[in-house]
Amino acid sequence: MIQVVGHKNPDSDSICSALVGAELLKARGLEAKAVRQGELNRETQHILQQAGVDQPEMCEGVAGEKIWLVDYSDLAQAPDDVAEAEIVGIVDHHRLGDVMTVNPLEAWIWPVGCTCTIMFNLFKMEETEITRPLATLMMSAILSDTVGFASPTCTQKDKDAVAELAPLAGVEDLDLFIKELLIAKTDIAGLSAAELVEKDLKAYPFKERDVVVGQIELATLEQVDSMIDELNADLQRRCDEDGLAMAALMLTDITTSTTRLLYKGEWNETLDTHAKDGVLTMENTLSRKKQGWPWLQTVLA
Q1: How high is the pLDDT of residue 77?
Q2: Cβ-count burial of 276 within 10 angstroms (0-12 exposed, 13-18 middle, 19+ buried)?
Q3: Distance from C-alpha of 90 to C-alpha of 227, rounded to nearest angstrom
Q4: Which residues contact 178 (CB under 8 A, 6 or more apart)?
Q5: How many angstroms separate the CA atoms of 220 and 226, rounded?
Q6: b/e per residue, 112-141, with b = 16+ CB within 10 A?
Q7: I need a surface site. Which of 94, 103, 158, 212 has the fewest CB within 10 A?
Q8: Which of 9, 8, 31, 4 is nearest to 20 (CA)?
Q9: Cα first-last separation, the chain
Q10: CA 227, CA 5: separation in Å to the nearest integer?
Q11: In what order do the strands lie in the sheet with 106-109?
Q12: Which of 50, 53, 62, 61 shows the shortest CA–CA distance to 19?
């Protein structure tokens, strides 16, 4: 049995690519199942409902198991006992992380906007049937990760994949589909500060220290105006409890491509020089992968 597992604090691509990846392996005649490392966010719940697909079961550990990593290759985002597992596959659209393997493995790492874009091409290459549920999962993940094609991470391969997947998913009005997806994506009503920070939080090793960078995608920054103090307090708590050099949170208005960066930790002073009146604003910034985290690495180096 191969467990197909996305990263901690899973986003839609992480969950969808795990589900799709498990079906690809089954089509090869292998035993496989998708598992998740956390609860589903509201957008992902919306996608699975649209696809008519059940959520993956919770990952209870991978020690002694064969696993596929999807949507990441950093050990900090893997199951805690990953060192005791055999990684036999990676499908990802981020930078190559610090994963090391004992044996050769299957690895597909492409500079595209979404892991599901790679999955779609694997299905085509292997001439494997793409059912309506699978098409819905892949198309939704691509539109989510590229913010409806608006993100700088979006490539022609992502657009081509959606163009082919839409009819397979039975979607005739793509604009309406995207609108409903982004409404679910930016729904944060009733979530606590800790839940918001945890919603899409990734860990990165940097300069021999640990850093976490989260992101909340919003319809407007006003959605979190009343929670700034609570969000900052939660970031500071994480630094204190986990010994982090920095905990940062990108508050991203997806309609204007404007990001306000909250940050706490030992490296505050370096970032303070880029703030104005105590507020660090990043213009034309939608992507953590291609814009936010690379900028932070440059500034903190």
Answers
A1: 93
A2: exposed
A3: 37
A4: 143, 148
A5: 13
A6: bbbbbbbbbbbbeeeeeebeebbbbbbbbb
A7: 103
A8: 4
A9: 42
A10: 32
A11: 57-58, 32-37, 2-8, 66-70, 86-92, 106-109
A12: 53
- The string of pLDDT tens digits covering residues 208-260 is 899 999 999 998 999 999 999 999 999 999 999 999 999 999 999 998 999 99
Length of the chain: 301
Q: What integer best gives the mean pLDDT of the chain?
A: 94
Closest CA to 89 of 2, 27, 7, 203: 2
Alpha helices in the chain (DSSP H): 12-27, 42-51, 115-125, 132-145, 156-169, 174-185, 193-198, 228-242, 268-272, 293-300
Q: What pTM value is reported for the model? A: 0.86
- Contact partners, residue 158, CB within 8 Å, separation at least 6: 112, 113, 114, 117, 142, 146, 149
Q: What tens digit of pLDDT does each residue of 131-149 get? A: 999 999 999 999 999 999 9
How many angstroms separate the CA atoms of 177 and 148, rounded? 10
Backbone angles phi and psi of 273, in degrees to 5: -70, -15
115-125 vs 12-27: helix axis angle to the nearest 10?
A: 20
For residue 278, what pLDDT is reported? 85
| Whole-number Cα distances in Å, 157 to 160, 165, 177, 275, 287 | 5, 12, 19, 36, 18
Per-residue confidence (pLDDT) for residue 199, from 0 to 100 = 86
Going by the DSSP 8-state scheme, the letter that residue 227 receives in this structure is: G
**Structural contact between residues 71 and 7, judged by C-beta atoms closer than 8 angstroms:** yes
